[in-house]
Amino acid sequence: MVQEELGNQRERMLDAWDAAAPGWGRQADRMQLFALPVSEWMVRRAALEPGQQVVELAAGPGDTGFMAARLVAPGGGLISSDAAAGMLAVARERAAEHGITNVEFKQLQLEWIDLPAASADAVLCRWGLMLVLDPAAALRECRRILKPGGRLALAVWDLPQSNPWATIISGALVELGHAEPPPQGGPGMFALSHPGLLEELLATAGFSDIDTEPITIVRRYPNVSEWIADTYDHASQFAAVWKDLGGEQRDRLREHLLRAAVEYVDDAGAIELPGSTLAAVALA
Fold first, then answer.
1. Residues 213/156, Cβ–Cβ less than 8 Å
2. Separation CA 218–CA 273 (nearest Å)
3. What is the DSSP string of 145-192?
4. Could you report the per-residue pLDDT of 230-279, keeping only the tens digit for each?
5. Is 0.90 topped by the overall pTM?
6. Which of 259, 227, 263, 221 is nearest to 242 (CA)?
7. Which CATH homologous superfamily contains domain 2-159+186-217+276-283?
């Protein structure tokens, strides 16, 4: 029964990501700009060279992997993967738009990566590890597919209090009675944010030379409407709530967000919301 429930939970998570994929495609350029400092750190610390083979897991729109694909050409290649078919479709479109040709697309799970052992020089995973049911198994799989001395570069979200860009909205939904508080102990945005936890998991999976670093990022919007529109496209829970709200309820939520974010709003109504991610690199 436990395995059956875990399987059902994975299916529900995949369904949610498939449903969210079109929105992620619409907002992919904005997401790329927001995430650029993290992607640049990961690709730089992966120390890529022409001729190498790179795997990106939980690739979403694929932009981190595409940066890597340029660095391993000529002779090298990228496997851009995601568990959700809808996300892979977005990545394929973006690869074509950006002229990335040394890329293969695969639908892969993090907890059992359907690739040969010791087949990758580098593995990239930006903001995926904390969302799986068994991150320890995912890290063991990453090490299995890496060649000896290969590098894993990843990012997970830092503590909730360091990420008001995300917590203000989720907190508003709870405070206004539109959502329940998130469950404790399961997969989620901040599941690996506890100090030292990521390093412990990497070491237990057999990685060495582990180095982690917090990276500050900023999400910018010209007004609260753009903030809401972006969140609608990226967050399935918010989208489901927003669809069901009437006009007065939407106005109340909009006002609540502005009050909660007042220190991040300028006189013209533009919003700059800070965040922090934990980036890590380790050797197999």
1. no
2. 6
3. HEEEEEEEEEEEE--GGG-HHHHHHHHHHHHTTSSPPPPSSSSSTTTT
4. 999 988 889 999 999 999 999 999 999 999 999 999 999 999 999 999 99
5. yes
6. 227
7. Vaccinia Virus protein VP39 (3.40.50.150)
